[in-house]
# Entry
Amino acid sequence: MRLEVIPYVLDFKFSARTSRGEMKDRKVWFLKIHGENGTAGLGEVAPIHRLSPEVVEEIPEFLNQLEDTIKNIQLPSSKEEVYELVAKLIPSSIPSVRFGLEMAFLDILRGGQKHIFTEDLSKIQLPINGLIWMGDEAFMKEQIKGKLDAGFSCIKLKVGALDFDSELRIIRSLRRISENLIIRLDANGAFQTNEVLSKIKALSEFNIHSIEQPIMPMQPEAMELICNRSEIPVALDEELIGIHSSRDRIDLLQELKPQYLVLKPTLHGGFASVTEWIDLAEMHGIEWWITSYLESNIGLNAIAQFASQYPSDGIYHGLGTGGLYHNNITTPIIIDRGYLKYAKSMVWGGVGD
# Structure
């Protein structure tokens, strides 16, 4: 086999702002594995500077080394062999590369047609939340109107960047529009531990579905208290980063007892890792959903197919990020009335052709 590494810079249509800062563009690397029979599998490595556990500047050198390693590797013959091989080749400390390599191998196993987990893409219909990015009140209200007009029944708002009173006003106005609208909040760890419960209490007035990562991770005693006392169900996101062993994952779930997990294949080391998180969550009676990590449409396609393997009743995934970039790769993915679907005309853009 031969591995080809293709760098690509995605340009945001606006400055994407979270409580951790702003992004105007982001670099990804496409991994194309060429087999002996002329087929090729495509994967995507998409870490985010300061948010991902790996050092993004070190990714190119690691991928150069991986090119040499792949030359001496036999193509795996099953999904299980793919997961086993990738776990041996890539340290768990570089989860974005694990995700990209798993994806490329799984693609080539299915003939290199980007049908990573299913042959019939036309049957995929995943309910998703409409994501509202941080900004001034006018910008956020404009986004909300756009999502409601587009038929979304679940809205997710980033909170923690504006002053709290402004955020309350925005959420209050959103709730007045509809009592049935599902409202999720994502704090990205923005709230301070000495004020988080009082802020959650104020937010609970608006019948909030859940709040993601209310405080920064690695504060287990504080997070356990929040999960236990919060008047809004808590979803763990960044808290799960870097927890690799089954024992550590079980301990985290049993100690913190969250109501939800937010699972991102790029952050957690690929599909094998996320599958284990799902299995453990369901063993402990914890609900979950899948979220993209601002990958291009290539990564989003693989994640959507993975999510489609599970029943979607009542689960709104976070997979509506395909329209964020001026120069995204063309795929058949469409968003229709709050659902991720595939267009009947399956048009795929080329990468590195």
